[in-house]
Structure formats: structure tokens, C-alpha cells
Amino acid sequence: MGFFERNRAEVEAKGFDPERLPPGQYLTERFPVLHVGDVPTYAPGEWNLTVTGAVSSPFTVDLEHLRALPSVSITTDIHCVTKWSKFDTQWRGVRVRDLFERAGVDSRATHVMAHAEYGYTANLPMVDATRDESLVVYSYDDADIEPIHGGPVRLLIPHLYFWKSAKWLRGLEAVMQDSPGFWEQNGYHMYGDPFREQRFWGD
Which residues are CB-neighbours of 18 under 8 A, at least 6 positions away? Predict the structure, then answer.
């Protein structure tokens, strides 16, 4: 029996529903660190987030004001394209939907481009970015998100592979058509459904 088969058997032995683990994934209790470039640092008050694009009232919010907005807490599984999954992760943040509603998003906008530090981008269908569980998060496991995991603020789109949940988020742009983000330009799937193993072009 190979590693993935043993891991899946262990998932079931621990009492988890094996259907929670997408094909080709293994369950870990760790939180692996994977990113491109250096981990950014911010002086107090330096970080902010812009909501722009096909909106009537673009705005910028700093961390203090983001934390003051109505927020939600969720417990969710996450799945990395490098094949690890982590169950029952706990996050708090503001719904992407609420941010776009505040900005007056154009009803014709079909997609979102997430912008992060160092020019990193990730594309998402608007319908996915505005689901109940799609959040701009600032808390993980009841604490501030560590910089290595994308703090102070990252995107959370838990039903897609985790590269779509951009670390060090700095902007949400509503757009009228889809275009590839950073990893999508480098061979990753435009959508990224872990249960359909949409890792790369053609999957």
C-alpha cells in the first residue's frame, strides 16, 4: 500500500468522512509554508486593501477599519495544489461579497482579480468570490495570521485549491472578463477545483 492509500485509510480510521479528502490529496495536521518571494513586513498603519475595477464607489480600507467591519468566523477544510489538505481550519474575516456591495459592484462583472504583494495575482469567477465562505481574513485559529501564512490579511476561497487564496492581499478588482493570474500564466488551471483535480492546464 502506497503513501496516499495509507493516509486515506488513516483518515477513515480517525473517524473522518473520507469523501472530505479530494482525490490525489493527503491529510496533514501541519500547515506547510509555500509562497513565491520574500515574506513582506509592514510598519504600523502601512497595510491597506483597495476594492476597485467595475465598481461605482471604489474605496481603500486599512487594517483597523477592516477589523471593524461586520465579520464572520468559519471552520473549513483547505486543499493545496501540492497535494496536502488540512481539515477544520478556523478563520475570521469579512465576506468578499460585502466589500463589493459596499463598492457598488457592476452587475455585469463576471470575475475578480485578487492583487497581492510583489505583483502576485489570482483570478476567480465572481460567483465563487462572493460565496458565503469566501472571505478576506485576518485571523487564523483565534490569533492574528502569521506573516508566513499571509498575514496580516489574506484571501480565503476554501472550495478551490489554496493558491487561489492569495497571501498578503492588497486589492480586489471586479472585472468584465476572465484573465489568468500569476500561477495560471505559469500552467495552473484557470479554475482549480480540488475535487476534480484541476491542477494544470487541460485537467
Answer: 8, 11, 12
CA-CA distance, 167 to 138, in Å (whole number)? 11
Separation between Cα atoms, residue 166 and residue 149, nearest integer Å:
10
pLDDT in tens, 89-115: 999 999 999 999 999 999 999 999 999
What predicted TM-score, i.e. pTM, was given to this entire model?
0.95
Place of cell 485576518: 138
26-27 and 84-95 as β-strands: parallel, antiparallel, unpaired? parallel
How many Å apart are CA 61 and CA 59, to the nearest integer?
A: 7
Bridge partners (DSSP) of residue 115 are: 121, 171
| Other beta carbons less than 10 A from residue 68's beta carbon | 11
> pLDDT tens, 121-173?
999 999 999 999 999 999 999 999 999 999 999 999 999 999 999 999 999 99
